[in-house]
């Protein structure tokens, strides 16, 4: 599936979080703007947003463990950019741009491109 950027998006997180299965995470608040995202702190003390589906919370509630690999790198986009959608999750797309770069962008910044038949 391809989408076209209808608005620009600039990441506010120059040092995105990353984790692998089994990594311990400190859980913070849920995102008020995008449902399904939670602020976490990784073992290297980096903080950022992660999908709740990728985290197994513990009974204590403030600690969780990563279920899978994740990299929170957002892709900076300009209006008119064409992107290939690789995954959709919680109102965000994980995409590849025409230069071969990968990252997350908000669905609301894009419009579906019609496929030629």
From TrEMBL:
Database matches in Pfam families: SH3_2
Protein keywords: SH3 domain
Protein's recorded name: Variant SH3 domain-containing protein
Domain of life of the native organism: Bacteria
Keyword Hydrolase carried by entry: no
CDD domains: SH3
SH3 domain boundaries: 59-115
Species this protein is from: Marinomonas mediterranea (strain ATCC 700492 / JCM 21426 / NBRC 103028 / MMB-1)
Residues in coiled coil: none
InterPro entries: SH3-like_dom_sf, SH3_domain, UCP034961_SH3_2
